[in-house]
Amino acid sequence: MDLSNLYQEVILDHYKHPEHKGLSLEKDVQVHHINPSCGDEITINLTMRDGVVSDLTWDGVGCSISMASASMMTGLLHGKNAAEATVIVESFVDLMHSKGTSQGDENVLEDAVAFAGVSQYPARIKCALLGWMAYKDAAIQVHGK
Amino acid sequence: MTVNPALIRKDFPIFERTVREGKKLVYLDNGATSQKPNSVIEAESDFYRFKNAAVHRGAHQLAEEATEVYEQARDLVASFLGGVSDEIIFTKSATESLNLLAYAIGSAEPSNRFHLAEGDKIVVTEMEHHANLIPWQQLAKRNRATLGWFEVNSEGRLDLSQIESIIDSKTKIVALTHQSNVLGTVNPLQEIVKRAHEVGAIVILDACQSVPHMKINVKELGIDFLAFSGHKALGPTGVGILWGRSEMLADLPPFLFGGSMIETVSMTEATWANPPKRFEAGVPNMAQAVGLGAAVKYLTTIGLESIHDHEMKLTQQLIHGLQSNSDVEIYGPAGCDMRGGVVSFSLANIHPHDLGQFLDSQGIAVRTGHHCAWPLNRKLGVVATTRASVYLYNDSSDIDALLLGVCDAQRFFARA
Fold first, then answer.
1. Fewer CB under 10 Å: which end of chain B, C or N?
2. Is residue B46 located within the same domain as residue B92?
3. Per the database entry, which stretches of residues form a coiled coil (chain A) (predicted)?
4. Could you give the ipTM of this predicted complex?
5. Least CB-CB distance to B353: which of A1, A4, A38?
């Protein structure tokens, strides 16, 4: 396994220049998730307007995989309605559990297919999923409001 | 005797394999668990092959032989620690040893010397592994005792300047690590034991990181209880040790109830066997105990003083090498005095997980994360660190590989 397959440049780029990082002042819900095995943490603020993700910001500390993944996710989910967002999230989760057998659907995941390599490193799947699991939690909470 | 890693590695079958597509295994995660020599693997499997029966039960030949090798293992561990056999309790892990103590103490009646009343104090340190923090933190909560602790200073050592007020007259328990699993710091026990005994407190030592790596004599340390895990000391998983001074164990109530630990039983009452049996309810992890016996035999043959000298040479090489890299920050004592072979560090702009992953691609196994010492990490102001920890089978080429790997990782992650 070539390590540059795991650490694709687009991932390192998002790690160094994260998008939507910094929590917005207003939000419908805030969710804080941690990875207890490594101490990585993420907080996300989610606002939905008329069933659409109108604002999604995050902050956190962690490895390049967890931080870049959160950065890419927030970009991807912005402006999507709840159902579209769910499709994207499920697609990413499936990719992470594919054990290297899937390249990911670029039409759905766009740049996030760069994380396909992570699925071959069992210890890192949780890193890549940290932000996505926080979003899933936030989406459920917003729905319940 | 000088430690010869090349010769020692021949005893450890795992070094015959390669990792990550043909790379030599550079195993520097000994603080998490050690590799096993053939003598340990064989002792464990031979128990199942030739002696397997439930110890201390049954009148048949196998039961006799199983009991004999199990008790021999206890004798070996006792002489390894400088204690006597009846002071050695086999548990499943050091974590269980410490929990056993916490629960036993927590259940002691008011007439018992271990009774922990409301307002009594338990003292720990800021550098404890979760296994020697949470049992006491939770015991304090259950028994309405208070929890106090020694802080860690900027050199990674315990701040003992307030020892008299921290270990005060209310203190009943002082529980601390012998060597930090993150910083490598070896704690000065003499002063702490003296003060604890002055106020009538007991001293419980988490020796997981020290017993496998340095000569320990429980009598000389003056402590009251000690816990360590077999698997960090070349032994199998599933076996830990609790050592307690005879007069302490005599008064300690049991924690786990069941077979073997009783003297008499009626439908409504039970009385307890003497130590160590009082604390070994149920059929124990016999093969693992026998394996641990073989492990301490192996360590004794090489000699703990030699092992420690060897490790400190490697540690010095590692610290010097890391210090020459301006992007590296080392946590813990910079010198080798009162220190063990555990070195935690961070690398500017590269998260420990990413560094660990890169090193893994080069065949180098290190630990990354909070090392089960979250409060200490907070104190250090880091989320996670990278930790390298050495043992008797490591050599200077392993350290060179790590130092080179760190530089290569810097180049790799700088590319985007």
1. N
2. yes
3. none
4. 0.90
5. A38
